[in-house]
Design a protein that fits this description.
The protein is an alpha/beta fold and about 325 residues long. The protein is built from 14 helices and twelve strands.
Length: about 325
Amino acid sequence: MHNYTYTLGGGIHRSPEFQKKGLAEYAVNVGLRCGHDCTYCSSRAMLRCHTAFQELGRKAFDTGYSIVDPDIPNKVAQDAKRLRRRVLVQICTTVDAWAPEAQELQLGRRCLEAILAEPDWTVRILTKNAAVTEDFDLIKKHRDRVLVGLSLTGTPDKDHVLAVVEPHASPISERMSALKKANKLGLRTYGMLCPLLPGVADAPAQIDQLVRFVKDCGAEEVFSEAVNARGNSLTLTEQVLRDAEFLAEAEAISAIRKRAVWSQYVVALVQNIQRAMRKHMAADKLRFLLYPKGLAEKDCRAIKKDDTGVVWL
């Protein structure tokens, strides 16, 4: 992993897209490329036009490198003082503040400290790294103002598969332990089941297990989403799975590259998570984030017949 530094403008930014999703009105991102290097990551497509890639001589869709701004906590501190509208801010929306390269600079903790030093702000943490537990001492002091979430992209029995597509993220078992610890300490938690890849994490029994787990961890709400097909994410995911000889999983990813199959996968995913939520929690706590573009008309109609918990984007 080659780690680059790059100066970003500002620390806290409005995020209309994440506000529509019900996640946060503002966002903090500690860089442009996360060292977890997940193959299905859609941020590469979202940020591909940023001038940083050309300046650093890297292609936006390449893997094997990260980009962070070491000075971002100072910019966050300035914005946290300056902004008058103090609502919910998410750390992070396009990168991970607890990825290995961010950990070295304590970017997650320092950004969190900067925001919580000012009254009225609340923070949603989203990470794939169990290292966030090292900051539970800080979060505990502000427990009413912080929501802790760890992305659960599968069940522990799939750790060996997910290690291929999420090469530098914490294993699912460690993320679960971190969320369990948060709940034990009395911290506020939420569920993030995203993305649930076909052939890896979309079976009804797996979804049922994940929903039961986040419920037991005191999740206030549960977010979920189908894998995003932007850029080269599906092609890359399929390739690394094939290289690791996870052929059934690779075939499942290959199949959803066809619009009709992707559409069917989404319908089944929505219905399975609705079913699990009704069984273990309450459907009104579900936030299934759904971009209808790409859905077949008949599948779109099928979801609209019962779109409880669906956030249409």
